Amino acid sequence: MLPRTTSIWQRDSQPNASGRPGAVQLAEDWLDKVAKPNNRSWQLQKRRLEIHVLPKWGDRKLDTIRRADVRELIESIEGEVSPNRNLTLVRTLLRYAVSRDWIEASPAEAIAKPKIENPRDRVLEMDEVRRVYVGADLLGYPFGGFIKMLLLTAQRRTEVAEMRWEQINLDAAVWVIPSESAKSGRPHLVPLSALAVRLLRSVPRLGDYVWTSDGNSPISGFAKLKQRLDAFLAASGGALQPWVLHDLRRTAATHMVRLGVTETIVGRVLNHAVQGVTATVYALHSYAPEKREALDRWAADVQREMEGCSPLSISGSAHPR
Questions:
Q1: How far is CA 107 from each of CA 16, 31, 63, 99, 132, rounded to the nearest angstrom?
Q2: Could you state, in order of their start, the residue ranges of all structural domains in the chain?
Q3: Are strands 174-177 and 168-169 parallel, antiparallel or unpaired?
Q4: In sequence order, what DSSP letters do the residues of 142-187 get, joined into one string?
């Protein structure tokens, strides 16, 4: 059986009186018997279940899940992961449940795929970055620091949410994302700017995870987090143009280019796939000095934008310099 690394996997997963299991047992069984033996990206599928599916369905018995529940789940997903991919994952899980005679039919089969979205190109302007960064303080720990770390490191939402203290060396100012957590499937070294180190030194250590509400598992509930932040911003100077959390990664990358960082180095910061022979000899510390300079430039630009700001000065109408 898969190791239970988060409290999500510790929720009730026992069969009900009819012998039909809950969502947690279904997910564990499918990961153990299907995904892990046959799919090299099974860890990514496991993380999607932990972030998007099990927080909503972990306590549910399979025979209580209806079509409306599937639709509500898919519609609630926002950010870097396509709703289509999650619908495909949910369909796969429920088809497996049918094959095990745990349910008679899958409630996901009649759900239409969400409209295919064009690639996003939203980039926040620096005054918007300032408002988001300062507004994050109003969220408190762990969500406020999480938002700031997304901006300062330009890493993926899931990777930042799953930061562990054991991955971080504050004295050396580095964070190493392990291969099992990185989308690329290889370890990724992220230099930490002085601003990022200061942020990390300021947060409490409640457990293995840096950003945790219960000390046992990484944060989730990103849609609600985003709604709270948007509400703060709307009440303090007006709502931003539509944006999602993944736009913070693109925003950081775009502004690094504006600051003179080459696209090649930005790609290394983002841990984009390296094509060709170079990929086979990719080293953990490749381009580390250049990545550090890029992230330091970006953090300095954010800090300049933040000078004189406080949680009460997030209005976009006047620049507090």
A1: 19, 20, 10, 14, 39
A2: 11-99, 126-306
A3: antiparallel
A4: THHHHHHHHHHH---HHHHHT-BGGGEETTTTEEEE-TTTSTTSS-
Q: How far apart are CA 144 and CA 264, in angstroms?
A: 30
Nearest to 251 by CA among 232, 276, 270: 270
Contact between 111 and 70 (Cβ < 8 Å): yes
Residue 76: predicted pLDDT: 77
* In contact, 43 and 31? CB cutoff 8 Å: no
Rounded to whole angstroms, the Cα distance separating 302 from 196 reads 11
Q: How far is CA 178 from CA 25, 162, 284, in A?
A: 27, 11, 10
Q: Which residues, including other chains, have CB under 8 Å from residue 230's CB and lie 6 or more apart?
A: 239, 240
Report the predicted TM-score, pTM, of the whole model to 2 decimal places: 0.67
Joined tokens for residue 19: 């012998």
pLDDT at 309 over 70: no
> Which own/partner contact pairs does 94-98 have at CB distance under 8 Å and 24+ positions apart?
94/62, 94/65, 96/26, 96/29, 96/30, 96/34, 97/26, 97/62
Asked if residues 257 and 266 have their Cβ atoms less than 8 Å apart, the reply is: yes
**126-306: CATH homologous superfamily?**
Intergrase catalytic core (1.10.443.10)
Computed on alpha carbons and rounded to an integer, the radius of gyration of the chain in Å comes to 21
What does the DSSP 8-state code read for residue 250? Answer: H
Per-residue pLDDT tens for 259-297? 999 999 999 999 987 655 344 445 666 899 999 999 999
